[in-house]
Structure formats: C-alpha cells, structure tokens
Amino acid sequence: MKIEQVNEQTVRAYFDALDPLVPSGTVLCVFGGAAVALLGSKIRTTMVIDVAESFSRIDRAAFCEASAKAGLPRFRRNRQIEKSNLKS
Fold first, then answer.
1. According to the model, what pLDDT value does residue 87 have?
2. Neighbouring C-beta atoms of residue 56, cutoff 10 Å
3. 54-73 residue pLDDT tens
4. Long-range CB contact pairs, 56-64, < 8 A, 24+
5. CB neighbours of 10 closer than 8 A, spacing ≥ 6?
6. Cβ(50)–Cβ(76) below 8 Å
7. Which of 14, 44, 53, 70 has the lowest CB atom count within 10 Å?
C-alpha cells in the first residue's frame, strides 16, 4: 500500500487495513490534517497521520506488530505515521 498523499480516502484505507489486526479496544486519537481529512475536507491533505498517544488507548508493541503484519509503517518517535512509508 503506497500513499503519495494523505487524504480522507488514504487515511481510511490505512485504518481499514490495520483494524482487524490490532487488539480489541485500541483507540487512536488522530489530530491535525489527517483528522480534518477524515471529517470530509476535500481540500485538506497532509504528509503524516498525527496521533496523540497520551489520549489514545494503544498497546504500542501490539500496534507495531499489527502494522508489520499489514505491511504498514510503525509510529516514528514523534508519534507520526510517515507518508513515505505508506503504500496504496
């Protein structure tokens, strides 16, 4: 899955691929451009998916394992999911 631009369609595709693989109860608090795109903005794109980890319910190790199984990128240190590692 290679994504050149993070927008509503590509963010949804990313989470659709990840959803069946993460532990039940996982909740990500997405903010910034990806959140605006998910709300349906047709003119908003971004380079990353920002996640407020302190407001999320996430088992980091399980999330990273699920991401690897799905062929998706893991979080960077600053809690962003990089565009350059996403594929469509």
1. 46
2. 15
3. 899 988 889 888 988 888 87
4. 56/26, 56/27, 56/28, 56/29, 57/25, 57/26, 57/27, 58/26, 58/27, 58/28, 59/23, 59/26, 62/22, 62/23, 62/26, 63/22, 63/26
5. 3, 86, 88
6. no
7. 53
Report the alpha-carbon distance of residue 41 to residue 27 in Å, rounded: 22
Instruction: Please give the DSSP secondary-structure letter assigned to residue 43.
Output: S
Domain borders along the chain are 8-85
| Stated pTM of the model | 0.72
Q: What is the pLDDT of residues 9-54, one digit of tens each?
A: 888 888 999 999 999 999 999 998 889 888 888 776 677 788 888 8
74: DSSP letter: P
